[in-house]
Amino acid sequence: MLLSFDSEAESPSPALHNSFRSFKRNGMIELEERNKEHDLIKAGFLSGMGHLGKEVEIVAIHKNSCSTILGQARLESFRIYSEAMRKKCGGNANIKYAWFGSSKDEICNIISHGFSTITEPKSGECFGIGVHLYPANIHGGR
């Protein structure tokens, strides 16, 4: 998902469309506005931004189509693990949505290769090492 704090942008620029090339190359599909998935993700994201959500313009939301063999394998692995957890935990796999804050370049790398610790964290080790996810229901108003 790419977003902009420039609320006066009337239409996506050619540079913006170029930004999405690596997304499309890696099996991402753009969700159309007024699509149910698009609207749910947009509402959840803006809600999570709290009062800053009024200043944000979401320019696109993309979904992983899992069209590659590796993507299909990852999705199937997730389904198998989720089902095992559901059985182990009495019917509730306890799957939650979460947000991951990152730069566009890092997101493109994650889409291509998944989460990894191949590169040195930009902030050093002051925030720890690993993937830091934030609950989808958190917002700045708390």
From TrEMBL:
**Highest rank taxon of the organism:** Eukaryota
Ranges for domain PARP catalytic: 14-142
Question: Single GO molecular-function term?
Answer: NAD+ poly-ADP-ribosyltransferase activity
Naturally occurring in which organism (per UniProt): Solanum tuberosum
InterPro entries xrefs = Poly(ADP-ribose)pol_cat_dom (IPR012317), RCD1/SRO1-5 (IPR044964)
Name of the protein in question: PARP catalytic domain-containing protein
